[in-house]
């Protein structure tokens, strides 16, 4: 019971009062049933009792108040529980190293932070009401047992059976649901292809016919599977409802056969059973959700455990600091191997030895997959080395200095991420921003207000220019640019190589530039060429 | 009522069936109520444990009828709705397929995609509740009629209370919806924060300040969510418990108030109480499906509105002419054309009020069969639009596009485009090579070898075995796909931009000359000035104006 443990661990404050109020609400329901049956009978005798009426009024109010209290308080507490889980996980991810994050994978992390917490947020309130109705059922059972033990046993056996049937059918329904989802996804994927490849579709009629034909098949398939799913759902629903109706049937057609003197209690028993069917229906609906919540929690905890295991090494990275910003950084015989799940080596980078100096432009070039990006990751301290060392000003960097070392970088990777809010700069210099925006021809497209860009819905080249502005504002001593110019047109490409880079150089930064633009190779002070994970001896391309 | 219109799009039968099945189901449950209360009262009156077997049989029969019709109701309605969705969806897809590119681009493709997928999902996943809502309405009416038959006074009192309660309940739900909307905005922000962390993971690792700011922001957003969601829960529980209390009041009304006004009905109090309790499930069911109903109604409206909107953006010649018979043939190189000409072609982008619209042209160009032509120019100079005009994907405002002195106009667009294969800068690599028949995999493998992808990707059953690759690699696959189309003209938009220096050289020095040798006409947008000499002609665009420049190396403008 992960859920139970999580509740006791994270939100123990209101449990007692919640339990008390739940019981009170259940008692109120029970007395309501008793009062209504008594009054119905007495009314039949010709008098309306003021005493009963007063008790009825009190009970109704008591029910209302306690019911609202428990539901609202419990929902609030579950939200706090989700908040704690969510923020805990977020901060844990933040402190984890890149390798672990990439090993776990974006989609799993995103799933835990968004889908799983969302499932919890949807399911937990349902569980709250389910629990409450279950307690209510206990008291109604006691009342019914007081009227006729046999009727109580019979009614609750049937109710139990109903819940069990519902529970057992969930699995079959889920399989159908998955196949319906899959079929629907095929339609949506086809639609996405139609829209993303619209120009291509327009270019060729046979292609359009073929794709629409495939879509029509998928759409028909989706229609069939969805209909099957709904038919099954309908049968389940009808059977469950019919069983709830039979509860009442039991009281008037079955119990009288076995219990002598039942005629005295037949009316209150019938009414009590009518009260029972609602909660039974709710409980039968909610029980399968417990599994859903457990699964979501399990998922979150699994990821949390993986992250905590990795965090043990990572947390020490924040304790130390560098004496000053380094003027030289270097890799010395640095090696890194990529392995598959079985630990078999796939690709090895290194041993790499390379130096980068302040006030110099160092360019790195090489084919696709030659190891350029890996070199950058090693150099920026994003991935720990398998062997060899990372050196700043001639001294080997210690683990506890790593975060401080990383903080000295501004980097625009080829798969860079531009966030709309400027989180890395406290007070952006408006002068630099307007100069840079103008220089990049973006003054009419983007403004920066309140620490946020007005839009980042721009072309790749334009977003890279914004990322460059952010790097300028950060003004860090080391700057890494991974194929920055690839998405720029010749004009900005020239500005980049002939103005921006020399300007950075003049300001004494360590400039590290991955590039394919051989016509500007001559601007570099140093050039590394990578091939198959190794740094090659310099040579010219043409 | 959009949902009904949607349902009626496949005929009148579904609606009749819906009402018939719902009525049968509702009637059977009302009979269950009548039978049960009658039996209970009989036992109570005769003071004997007496079971009337025919009545018990009737009870079972009613249950059986209920199970049959309730499941058929859901099944039939869902099947009908799914059929209607399927038809409407394919109608929309066919409309999209025939839409005009320029107009579709301005229609918003993500809006279109979101609209179709979301709407289908909303309607499809809720169809059962819609069926049950119909049944609930009939059931409530029948139970009220039953009550009226038993005691008119109770009927009047209960109907009044019910109406008042329903109105209040509905009102309580309104503010709830607003809450919900605000909440989903907050949630979107929270999720944005998550993708900032995950997509920008490297960036936040490189900067403690950024990392901490992100953490603080997430914490703040998350606590705001706690508040917002709690408020939402508070309101929705208030609504729910209000509903429950109203039923308690209705019961109180029956047992305490009715006897005062109508002494003759006193003996029937149990029947009426039971009837009230029988109304609980349909009423709560109905209330809960109201919001679902509204959403589904809106979704149906969206989809049907989309249909009309899309009909308006169809390209002029939606009924494409007979497809060229040889379009699937192995060798289309002989498709007859010797030149393509633009004569005073003008294309203007509509500009927002006050600004000067960007105009491309007038363009006068003649492209001869077998030429290699490079199109150059800065960002926004009109290169991509030029390509779209050339392929007749965009239609000029003035001037003519001619193929061998025949104007390319409405009925001939498809025929004109059939001459060309393309890799656009925002190309799409299809999961399967649609519409080129069975591809000779030997030929495909050979092309893969040529673009140096054979060690990474294979070709099987008209599919590349992998497509989750880098942009440069995917462009190579797109080039292979385009070459497999075997069209006389190849159009490339910044194809080499994502290739490394070595492959770029191979592309300009080996691939292009070889394709030219095979007789292809190549029209390529490029920035690679060091290879401009690989072209026969170079057309330079600047601010929408076209000039022909020398192809030998020279300084850029």
Summarize the helices and strands and which ones pair or pack.
The complex is a heterodimer of chains A (542) and B (557).
Chain A (H helix, E strand, L loop, with lengths): L1 H9 L4 H31 L4 H45 L3 H7 L1 H42 L1 H48 L1 H6 L1 H54 L7 H49 L13 E12 L5 E13 L2 E7 L5 H8 L7 E6 L2 E2 L5 H5 L2 E4 L17 H10 L8 E2 L2 E2 L6 H15 L3 E5 L7 H17 L3 E5 L11 E6 L2 E3 L6
Parallel strand pairs in A: 3-10, 3-11, 6-9, 9-10
Antiparallel strand pairs in A: 1-2, 1-4, 4-5, 7-8, 11-12
Helix pairs in contact in A: 2-3, 2-5, 2-9, 3-5, 3-9, 5-6, 5-9, 6-8, 6-9, 8-9, 12-13
Chain B lengths: L1 H7 L4 H34 L6 H45 L3 H7 L1 H42 L1 H48 L1 H5 L2 H54 L7 H44 L26 E10 L10 E10 L3 E5 L6 H8 L7 E6 L2 E2 L5 H5 L2 E4 L17 H10 L8 E2 L2 E2 L6 H14 L4 E5 L7 H17 L3 E5 L11 E6 L2 E5 L8
Parallel strand pairs in B: 3-10, 3-11, 6-9, 9-10
Antiparallel strand pairs in B: 1-2, 1-4, 4-5, 7-8, 11-12
Describe what this molecule looks like in 3D:
The complex is a heterodimer of chains A (about 550) and B (about 550). Chain A has helices at about 1-10, 15-45, 50-95, 100-105, 105-145, 150-195, 200-205, 205-260, 265-315, 370-380, 400-405, 430-440, 460-475, 490-505; strands at about 330-340, 345-355, 360-365, 385-390, 395, 410, 450, 450-455, 480, 510-515, 525-530, 535. Chain A has about 550 residues and is an alpha/beta fold. In chain A, helix 2 (about 15-45) runs antiparallel to helix 3 (about 50-95), helix 2 runs parallel beside helix 5 and helix 6 (about 150-195) packs antiparallel against helix 8 (about 205-260). Helices cover about 60% and strands about 10% of the residues of chain B. Chain B has 14 helices and 12 strands. In chain B, strand 7 and strand 8 (about 465) form a beta hairpin. In chain B, helix 6 runs antiparallel to helix 8. Chain B is elongated. Classes of the chains: A alpha/beta (about 550), B alpha/beta (about 550). At the A-B interface, helix 2, helix 3, helix 5, helix 6 and helix 7 of A face helix 2, helix 3, helix 5, helix 6 and helix 7 of B.
């Amino acid at each position: 019971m992960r859920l139970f443990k999580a509740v006791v661990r994270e939100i123990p404050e209101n449990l007692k009062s919640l339990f008390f109020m739940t019981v009170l609400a259940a008692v109120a329901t029970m007395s309501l049933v008793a009062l209504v049956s008594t009054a119905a009978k007495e009314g039949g005798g010709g008098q309306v009792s003021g005493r009963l009426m007063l008790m009825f009024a009190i009970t109704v109010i008591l029910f209302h108040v306690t019911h609202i209290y428990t539901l609202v308080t419990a929902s609030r507490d579950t939200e706090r529980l989700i908040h704690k889980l969510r923020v805990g996980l977020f901060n844990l991810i933040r402190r984890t190293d890149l390798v672990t994050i990439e090993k776990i994978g974006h989609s799993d992390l995103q799933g835990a932070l968004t889908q799983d917490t969302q499932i919890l947020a949807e399911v937990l309130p349902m569980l709250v009401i389910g629990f409450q109705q279950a307690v209510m059922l206990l008291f109604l059972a006691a009342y019914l047992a007081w009227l006729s033990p046999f009727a109580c046993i019979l009614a609750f056996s049937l109710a139990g059976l109903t819940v069990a049937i519902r529970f057992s059918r969930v699995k079959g329904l889920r399989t159908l649901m998955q196949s319906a989802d899959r079929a629907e996804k095929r339609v949506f994927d086809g639609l996405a292809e139609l829209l993303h490849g619209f120009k291509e579709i327009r270019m060729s009629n046979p292609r359009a016919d073929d794709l629409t034909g495939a879509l029509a098949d998928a759409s028909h398939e989706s229609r069939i599977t969805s209909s099957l799913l709904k038919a099954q759902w309908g049968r389940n629903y009808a059977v469950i409802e019919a069983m709830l109706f039979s509860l009442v049937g039991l009281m008037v057609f079955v119990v009288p056969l076995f219990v002598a003197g039942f005629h005295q209690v037949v009316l209150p028993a019938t009414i009590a059973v009518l009260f029972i069917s609602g909660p039974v229906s709710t409980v039968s609906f909610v029980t399968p959700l417990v599994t859903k919540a457990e699964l979501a929690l399990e998922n979150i905890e699994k990821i949390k455990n993986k992250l905590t295991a990795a965090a043990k090494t990572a947390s020490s990275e924040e304790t130390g600091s560098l004496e000053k910003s380094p003027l030289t950084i270097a890799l010395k015989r640095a090696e890194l191997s990529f392995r598959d799940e079985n630990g078999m080596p796939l690709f090895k980078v290194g041993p790499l030895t390379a130096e980068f100096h302040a006030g110099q432009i160092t360019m790195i070039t090489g084919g696709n997959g030659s190891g350029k990006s890996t070199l950058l990751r090693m150099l920026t301290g994003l991935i720990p080395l398998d062997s060899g060392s990372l050196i700043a000003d001639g001294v080997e960097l210690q683990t506890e200095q790593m975060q401080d070392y990383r903080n000295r970088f501004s980097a625009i990777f080829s798969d860079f991420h531009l966030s709309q809010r400027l989180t890395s700069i406290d007070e952006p210099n408006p002068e630099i921003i307007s100069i840079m925006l103008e220089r990049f021809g973006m003054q009419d497209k983007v403004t920066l207000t309140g620490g946020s860009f007005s839009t980042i819905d721009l072309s790749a080249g334009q977003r890279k220019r914004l990322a460059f502005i952010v790097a300028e504002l950060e003004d860090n001593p080391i700057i890494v640019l991974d194929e920055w110019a690839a998405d720029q047109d010749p004009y900005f490409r020239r500005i980049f190589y002939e103005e921006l880079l020399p300007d950075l150089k003049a300001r004494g930064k360590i400039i590290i530039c991955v590039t394919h633009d051989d016509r500007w190779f001559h601007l570099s002070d140093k050039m590394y060429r990578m091939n198959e994970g190794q740094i090659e001896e310099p040579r010219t391309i043409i | 009522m959009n949902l009904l219109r949607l349902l009626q799009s496949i005929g009148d039968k579904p609606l009749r069936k819906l009402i018939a099945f719902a009525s049968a189901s509702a009637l059977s449950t009302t009979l269950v109520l009548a039978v049960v209360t009658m039996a209970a009262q009989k036992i109570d009156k005769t003071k004997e444990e007496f079971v009337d077997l025919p009545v018990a049989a009737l009870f079972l029969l009613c249950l059986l009828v209920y199970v049959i019709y309730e499941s058929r109701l859901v099944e039939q309605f869902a099947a009908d709705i799914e059929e209607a969705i399927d038809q409407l969806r394919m109608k929309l897809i066919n409309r999209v397929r025939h839409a005009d590119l320029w107009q579709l681009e301005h229609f918003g493709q993500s809006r279109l995609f979101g609209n179709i997928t979301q709407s289908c999902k909303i309607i499809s996943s809720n169809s059962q509740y819609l069926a049950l809502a119909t049944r609930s309405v009939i059931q409530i009416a029948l139970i009220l009629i039953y009550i009226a038959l038993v005691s008119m006074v109770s009927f009047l009192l209960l109907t009044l209370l019910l109406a008042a309660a329903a109105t209040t309940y509905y009102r309580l739900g309104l503010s709830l919806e607003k809450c919900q909307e605000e909440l989903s905005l907050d949630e979107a922000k929270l999720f944005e924060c998550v993708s900032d962390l995950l997509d920008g993971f490297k960036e936040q690792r490189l900067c403690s300040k950024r990392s901490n700011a992100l953490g603080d922001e997430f914490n703040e957003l998350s606590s705001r969510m706690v508040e917002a969601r709690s408020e939402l829960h508070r309101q929705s529980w208030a609504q729910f418990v209000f509903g429950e209390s109203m039923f308690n009041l209705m019961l109180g009304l029956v047992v305490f108030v009715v006897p005062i006004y109508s002494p003759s009905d006193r003996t029937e109090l149990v029947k009426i109480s039971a009837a009230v309790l029988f109304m609980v499930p349909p009423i709560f069911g109905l209330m809960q499906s109201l919001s679902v109903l509204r959403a589904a109604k809106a979704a149906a409206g969206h989809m049907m509105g989309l249909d009309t909107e899309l009909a308006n953006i169809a390209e002029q010649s939606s009924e494409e002419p007979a497809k060229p018979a040889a379009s699937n043939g192995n060798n289309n190189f002989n498709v007859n054309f010797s030149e393509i000409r633009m004569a005073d072609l003008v294309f203007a982008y509509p500009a927002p009020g006050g600004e000067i619209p960007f105009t491309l042209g007038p363009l006068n160009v003649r492209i001869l069969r077998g030429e290699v032509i490079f199109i150059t120019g800065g960002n926004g100079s009109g290169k991509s639009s030029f390509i779209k005009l050339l392929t007749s994907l965009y239609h000029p405002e003035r001037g003519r596009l001619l193929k061998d002195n025949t104007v390319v106009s409405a009925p001939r667009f498809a025929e004109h485009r059939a001459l060309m294969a393309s890799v656009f800068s925002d190309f799409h690599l299809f999961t399967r090579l649609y519409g080129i028949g069975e591809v000779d995999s030997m030929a495909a493998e050979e092309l893969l070898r040529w673009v140096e992808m054979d060690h990474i990707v294979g070709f099987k059953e008209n599919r590349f075995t992998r497509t989750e690759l880098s942009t440069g690699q995917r462009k190579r696959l797109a080039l292979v796909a385009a070459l497999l189309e075997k069209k006389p003209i190849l159009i490339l938009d910044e194809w080499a931009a994502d290739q490394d220096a070595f492959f770029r050289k191979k592309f300009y020095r080996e691939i292009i000359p070889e394709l030219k040798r095979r007789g292809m006409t190549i029209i390529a947008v490029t920035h690679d000035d060091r290879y401009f000499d690989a072209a026969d002609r170079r057309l330079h665009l600047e601010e929408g104006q076209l000039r022909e420049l020398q192809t030998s190396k020279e300084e850029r403008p």
